[in-house]
Design brief:
The protein is built from two helices and six strands, in the order H-E-E-H-E-E-E-E. The chain is α+β, with helices and mostly antiparallel strands and 148 residues long. It has one domain: Roll (Thiol Ester Dehydrase, Chain A), CATH 3.10.129.10.
Length: 148
């Protein structure tokens, strides 16, 4: 299988607070106030099982990190600092299959609703257009002070 380029349209470190080994994204491709798209090539590592499949929790975490980037971008456009946040709920989430080593995942999230510090985000993970997992994520986010 052909490797995906690791180049990102955006600097991951500016929008996602995670760092290796927990960082689950290779690149941010689209970053808007209410939508984001990220990419990850599945490689052997601590989040891949003996059969070469990415663990379920890593799949969920990749979608959550894509949402973190979207929230951070929206905060910056409003003149605020980067958000601190956490995944607090998951509903109607289903996994059709787990991606395997060598496959390139595309994560896409879109903001469904926002009420104060709580947001509802729909997220999905795809490989070559095939939806592997999808569901609704609830986040609690706290804005940092204005950017320095």
């Amino acid at each position: 299988m052909e490797s995906a380029p690791r180049e990102s349209a955006f600097d991951l470190a500016e929008y996602v607070p995670h760092r290796p080994p927990i960082l689950g994204l290779d690149a941010l491709l689209v970053l808007e106030d209410a939508r984001a798209v990220a990419r990850r090539e599945v490689r052997p590592g601590p989040d891949v099982d003996a059969q070469g499949a990415l663990w379920e929790a890593a799949l969920i975490e990749g979608i959550a990190q894509t949402a973190a980037a979207m929230h951070g971008a929206a905060a910056r456009r409003r003149g605020r600092g980067v958000l601190r946040g956490m995944l607090v709920g998951l509903s109607r989430f289903s996994i059709e299959r787990l991606p395997k080593v060598g496959e390139v995942l595309e994560y896409e999230v879109s903001l469904v609703r926002e009420l104060d510090a709580i947001s509802l985000v729909h997220g999905q993970a795809r490989v070559a257009g095939e939806v592997l997992a999808a569901g609704d994520f609830q986040f609690f986010t706290e804005q940092a002070g204005p950017p320095a």
